[in-house]
Design brief:
two-stranded antiparallel ribbon, single chain, about 450 residues, alpha/beta, about 25% helix, eight-stranded mixed beta sheet, 12 helices, binds 2-acetamido-2-deoxy-beta-D-glucopyranose, Rossmann fold
Length: about 450
């Protein structure tokens, strides 16, 4: 087995944060934004997104043989909120010579610059080889979204893990019904579990521990705990799930890779979106994001997080997350208003959890926007070694998979849910889930 130097320049999807002045102050978006943010906390109708007018130009159908939705339609869903308590015991990165409770833009910029320009030195100075045992208890806020009618029997639960810059609303993006993954899933009879990662949305928001608590190994342990509860208890959906499809986006995909490498028995089918095994574009991406204290970013629905939380308000985020001009400015604005933060520890520890999944035998499907910036440098279709493109090259991480496939969605950047082509991409995901018997 060759060795992998994955994410050597840090894998990251920044807070989605185009600057507001470049975007229309469209009132239809403002109203759909408030309905979306309230949907996260309440009621059985969280998936009732509005159908705002699209202002997209140049949206061309890329494939005539992909249906717009499954047979039961995009209204066939209800989402119920549920909070799961996770008690974790993880083996964390022992960060040294850091300010664990930083609250200082100069410090944030200095650490990001030092890490992205000389990761080897930063790692040598700030990451001990010894792991730090870490235990904690967090509340994780989620939604269980089920078909109103025609729920498939014995199918996978679709367990969806969002990336950095978002919360679980990424999977039920309310700009229009066609952008919502959970709606596409239910249109085929599938149930989904979506949740807010630690530090995001309505889940626990630790006030301290920007390095020691908020880091990737903590998040891997939370995901493993959630998957264990879904399989072994009846707290969600009143039943035990014995088949689970893990679908990730970006950071959520890296966590999925980590879980498949360490506890492969928890995943039956793995779908990684916004993902590749190539880390060489991440430093540029992080620097262009101009990370700052989240509480200083204007125009967000909620920016009250403590000083360890960071994000971006750089106009270039549109270029980093989308594929101009093939996007809706109103969808981008809604995504920005709902932005969620990250911490330095989450960013710097991500490289430590990625590994080849030697014992994961289930199917793997990698789906990227063809012009994904952080994982492909906007050219996912470039050949990579013996592989025809950069999504396909992810197969190196899954030597034991029984069925590896990949797909590039044209005219689409990193944040697939915000793309006008999200519906097509998600119909292809559902087709893989059906074809592999999940
Ligand atoms: C969509 O745009 C048309 C034409 O500008 C307008 O009449 C209509 O009210 C808009 N619909 C919504 C839902 O904003
Ligand atoms: C969409 O199709 C139109 C007309 O064929 C073409 O001019 C335009 O470049 C296409 N857009 C993209 C993104 O390919
Ligand atoms: C936590 O995990 C460590 C090993 O990583 C183990 O030594 C320890 O006993 C565990 N603690 C608890 C309370 O499970
Ligand atoms: C902010 O961080 C910088 C760099 O670590 C440090 O020099 C400065 O003293 C800090 N400022 C405050 C107010 O803590
Ligand atoms: C590596 O880090 C040390 C300690 O911060 C610093 O003194 C040194 O200049 C750095 N080396 C390089 C090549 O940047
Ligand atoms: C963490 O690293 C520091 C500095 O190297 C060391 O003193 C400490 O013992 C380490 N903690 C653990 C649990 O290994
Ligand atoms: C970890 O768990 C042990 C045993 O349950 C407990 O004594 C200890 O205080 C916990 N540590 C933290 C940091 O929560
Ligand atoms: C679902 O699984 C149960 C138990 O394995 C089996 O008895 C039942 O026939 C299955 N139902 C369908 C629709 O496949
Ligand atoms: C679920 O329960 C089984 C049987 O008790 C046990 O072997 C397994 O470790 C549990 N899995 C998780 C993830 O808790
Ligand atoms: C805003 O975020 C904080 C966490 O930083 C949370 O406690 C609070 O409930 C949120 N407020 C709203 C209105 O969502
Ligand atoms: C894979 O499974 C084998 C056999 O059970 C085990 O020895 C090995 O440690 C596992 N590898 C990993 C990376 O978990
Ligand atoms: C492999 O997965 C693809 C979907 O990505 C599916 O079309 C194909 O039938 C699968 N092959 C096998 C042997 O399961």
């Amino acid at each position: 087995m060759k060795s992998f130097s994955l994410f050597s320049a840090a894998t990251l999807a920044l807070a989605f944060a185009p600057s507001a002045f470049s975007l229309p102050q469209a009132s239809p978006v403002a109203s759909s934004s408030s309905s979306a943010s309230s949907s996260a906390s309440a009621s059985a109708s969280s998936a009732t997104g509005t159908s705002a007018n699209s202002t997209v130009s140049n949206v061309n159908s890329t494939s005539a043989n992909v249906p717009a939705a499954g047979p039961y339609g995009l209204d066939n869903v209800r989402c119920d909120p549920i909070t799961l308590t996770t008690k974790i015991n993880s083996s964390n990165v022992n960060f040294t010579n850091v300010d664990d409770n930083y609250n200082n833009d100069t410090y944030i910029l200095q650490e990001i610059l030092e890490y992205t320009t000389d990761q080897t030195n930063w790692t040598a100075n700030h990451m001990s080889k010894e792991k730090q045992p870490f235990n904690a208890t967090y509340d994780i806020s989620g939604h269980y979204c089920t078909p109103i009618q025609n729920a498939k029997q014995n199918s996978s639960l679709l367990f969806a893990v969002h990336g950095i810059g978002f919360d679980s609303k990424y999977w039920d993006f309310s700009y229009s019904k066609n952008y919502s993954f959970v709606r596409h899933a239910a249109s085929h009879g599938y149930s989904s579990f979506i949740f807010d990662r630690l530090g995001c949305g309505n889940s626990s928001i630790p006030k301290t521990g920007g390095f020691s608590a908020l880091q990737a190994p903590t998040e891997v342990a939370i995901v493993q705990n959630l998957l264990g509860q879904l399989r072994n208890t009846t707290v969600v959906g009143n039943k035990k799930f014995d088949k689970i499809t893990y679908i990730g986006h970006s950071y959520g995909s890296v966590l999925g890779n980590a879980v498949s490498a360490t506890t492969p028995q928890l995943i039956d089918n793995l779908v990684l979106t916004g993902f590749s095994a190539n880390s060489s574009y991440n430093a540029n991406f992080a620097q262009a994001g101009a990370l700052q204290k989240f509480s200083e970013i204007q125009g967000l629905t909620n920016n009250t997080q403590p000083g360890i939380y960071i994000g971006s308000n750089n106009v270039s985020a549109v270029q980093l997350f989308l594929d101009p001009p093939n996007y809706s400015q109103q969808a981008a604005l809604l995504g920005f208003q709902q932005s969620q933060p990250l911490t330095l520890g989450q960013f710097f520890s991500l490289s430590t959890v990625s590994a080849p999944a030697m014992n994961y035998t289930g199917p793997v499907f990698v789906v990227d926007g063809e012009r994904d910036f952080p994982f492909c440098g906007r050219q996912c279709n470039a050949a990579s070694g013996n592989y025809s493109n950069m999504a396909a090259a992810s197969q190196q991480l899954f030597p034991a998979t029984k069925n590896f496939t990949s797909y590039l969605q044209p005219y689409t950047g990193h944040a697939i849910s915000l793309s006008p082509y999200s519906g097509e991409a998600y119909e292809r995901v559902l087709a893989q889930i059906i074809a592999t018997g999940n």
